[in-house]
Amino acid sequence: MAIAEKAKKKEEKSDKGRIGRVDQIIGPVVDVVFDTENLPEIYHALEIDRGKAGRLVLEVQQHRGNNVVRTIAMASTDGLVRGHEVRDTGAPITVPVGKNTLGRMMSVIGDPIDGKGEIKSDVRLPIHRQAPPVSEQVTDTTVLETGIKVIDLVTTFAKGSKIGLFGGAGVGKTVIVMELIRNIAQEHGGFSVFAGVGERTREGNSLWLEMNESGVIDKTALVFGQMNEPPGARARVGLTGLTLAEYFRDEFGQDVLLFIDNVFRYMLAGSEVSALLGRIPSAVGYQPTLATEMGDLEERITSTKKGSITSVQAVFVPADDYTDPAITTTFAHLGATVSLSRAIVERGIYPAVDPLDSFSRFLTPEIVGEEHYRVARGVQQVLQRNKELQDIIAILGMDELSEDDKLLVSRARKIERFLSQPFFVAEVFTNRPGKYVPLKETIRGFGEILDGKHDDLPEQAFYMVGTIDEAVEAAKGEGGGREEAKQKAEQPKDGQPKGEQPKAEPSKGEQPKADQSKGEQPKADQSKTPPPKAEQPKKPQPKAAAKDGQQSR
Q: Is 199 a catalytic residue?
């Protein structure tokens, strides 16, 4: 009995030591004082019961001394007062994981925000975890087909790699992310996790509705930390989404896609947290721990012997400045970069991927094969040469180019248009059905353009199509339409009925004469029908006869 009583008293004492109170509130920063020396560890979660408003979660960031810890709130601190009771959970923030999270939308602390009730899961994992050891990682490289021509050709994705979507505001980063989610779910049947870091409410709502309409919501788990939330929440949303993806990889052996939109806002939230904690800023005002925080997130995204996590990260480039410290830090972790260009957007070509500014570390003959490598490099060479010739064309015109350069420019313009592609998620805007293009068809299409097999086709036929066969069909339809329009345009100019179209003439070419004598129209037709069979010089005679007949009457 004595031993049991001692254990009970020790447990009560430890529980009492895990209870603190709010000492100071500075916006999202909350200082908590504990009565004993038993302080919570860094990254431990503290909870405040706010009654009907729900729980407020704080994350420990610093030990200030005198039994005080400085924390960052994961939600608004409005209404919080000094002396409020705070409970130490004894562990980092934990979130529900598993298949029950598919089709659901949750906050940074794992609470549902989709109005569908509690997310029931037997397993909860902490969001702060170590990266897999090198012994557990695999070094084999497997190409991941996305169905988007320009990405599959030039910026090849590999399973377990990290891909960055770089671009300024309004160039289409989120649209490409949504199209990738759709293609992976529909064509590959894989799970996806979407982490909205600093998302606009409009973007999150649109994504939710689009995914419900396309039917891919059941294969996707979503985590959101919106723009209006404190920086602490935005700085941890990426880790929450990554925790969900790790469970699918490690327990289900899945090849998971993790989408982070936007990873720049993850770094920006870390900068805000650092400033609130009183740290001295580094270059351009960023936190001194920028590289470490990026490593904590990026190094957990990898392939293991059980499965893989492939991450596609939209990266906002502030003021289109690629020398920004946050952008250069991100480059170090990426296996491929997809650069979106505003100049391509202005020409109406979507997706607005710049094939000369984008690159992939996996675009080598050993990984993608000789043919893919030859075609990809050939496309880049043609586009680069075309870019160099633009100054000459602007000053002197196309006529001053050599025949070889004229042919090259023609092929480059066709390649530029063939790089465009209608997206499934953009059907409501473009009224064009979406196209998924297999990798083999992509290589074949661009290879045929480079080899000159379609030099006779108009360049407009290559715009917004899927495979090269669709471009050929579009050219046939366009060519037939042009011939008909040409024939119709020539008929009024000649003023004479064509031998091949005798029936069309009375309605168009002879309309004024039919108006002059409506009663004689049948007779005029009878007099005009025989001449088309005769030779060309005899055609004017019926007209004269008709006039003489009218005069005699």
A: yes
